[in-house]
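Hi,

I'm pasting everything inline rather than attaching a file, because the server keeps stripping attachments. The sequence lines come first, and each chain or strand is labelled.
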Amino acid sequence: MSGLTREDVLKLARLSRLRLSDEEIEKYQAELSDLIEYVEQLKNVDTDDVEPTNQVTGLKNVWREDEIIDYGFTPDDLLKNAPATEGQLLKVKRMLQ
Amino acid sequence: MSQWDSVAKIAEDVQAGKVSASELVERALKTIEEKQEYKAIIATTAGRARERAKEIDEKIAKGENAGRLAGVPFIAKDNFLTFGAETTAASNILKGFNAPYQATAVEKLETAGAINVAKANLDAFAHGSSTENSDFFTTLNPHKKEHVPGGSSGGSAAAVILDMAPFALGTDTGGSIRLPAAFTGAVGLKPTYGLVSRSGVVAMASSTDVIGPITRTVEDAALVLDVMSGKDDLDGTSIERDSVSYTDVDTSLSGKKIGVIKEYMGEGLDAGVKEKIDQAIEKLKSAGAEITEVSLPSLPLALAVYYILCPAEVSSNLSRYDGQRYGYSHPDAKTLDESYELSREVGFGAEAKRRIMIGTYVLSSGYYDAYYRKAQSVRTKIIQDFEKAFEQVDFLVGPTAPMTAFKIGENIDDPLQMYLVDIMTVAVNLSGIPAISVPCGEIEGLPVGLQLMAPQKHDRALLGLAKGYEEITQ
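And the predicted assembly:
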């Protein structure tokens, strides 16, 4: 399927938590359709005899001990970048109107 | 001629007291100031850099060893978390972000005595091939100001060619070190996937992201890699490094088996670039290398694979920018959901939005098998092509890009055309193999890059070949 509808773009924007202007919706509808059409060339490639690759250097399940590591910063240092805080908590807007 | 000696020589002179780290930092900052018009730099770390230089000079005055990179200034792409300046990834959503810790790569360089002096411009979140996707400004090509420097590490490459520092750091997810190196006439090394820890680097597409140096010479690239590489507990995908130094290389070309990639030398390749690449290959042959043509039939599919996998991973990695924990948060939002939508709408540029939505599309339920799984399977075929090729030859060679640096604005309205610039670099990332771009001449004043590739974990051999090439052409 290529050629996204306006509704498709609105749905993608909603799933991605992006609020788009009308102008953007129109622009992305055309651009995303072009890009999807381009990648659809893979549909004709025979991949019956190959496994998908997820990791290229052959690493599997890299574990570490579940212990606290001292990175040299405090919770307060991390919270300095937060838009809104209360004590050592992040403060967010209400979830329901 | 550069105002900088080799990285090794600078460190030696600093240690010997012939020049101070403070003088070098001032020289770098002065050059950055003088060449501001190229817009290679987002911010300097002047205050912290001067302090570190002073510490290093005091250490040396006391007769202590200041490290293998003592006093050597460098510039980090602004997607590396560093102290001394904000880390923005050239994005509005991260503007004002002060990193609470530094990237492992930066820490390793600093432990060896190097000094970060500035943060370089990039396409926001490293999405792009020209720096035109920076949310702040476009970097100009040092050779011709109306042309792009390539991307996404365009600020880093331009900074090195503008002589602002002896070396810079870049990241390469689909070609972002090699392409700007080619477009500016620098050396750009993309190491084997996992060889350099990515802890503290803003994630783009985690299955292909790597860190590497951009330098004026292969020797400098090898030394910087040698300091940065190795397994790191903070990055589970990092791998063991060579036990031998990456600077200890075999530069002889005689008898080296080099395959010319057929698929990169045909249709779509600019005639002038082809001529330069042919001449470079001829030089390798004259020096005794055995040149053959090899075919990797799945390579033309690599870009389509990349533009499924990369946006998919980007959509996931950029979900953390939600306006709640750090970064831009829209002041007018009434609810949490509105805060997400408005913060991301204002904070992300057009390319980030494009990639997030494409990624969301290809990962959507019902489309996952048709796009993502299919792309992962074709990725396997590309890897198999490389494996077969490396059974016949030690190295592969081709152009880094199908053209020289294009004009600013030329591709900006056509995202697909912009993506096609990466057509000769992305396959390397999909396979995890190392590759390097070295300068091989100029066309109408714009540099051409020769791309050399080796099997995974053969970074040292690759550096030897590149240095061998550099030696016969200088």
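The first strand of chain B starts at residue 41 and ends at 44.

If the labels don't parse on your end, tell me and I'll reformat.
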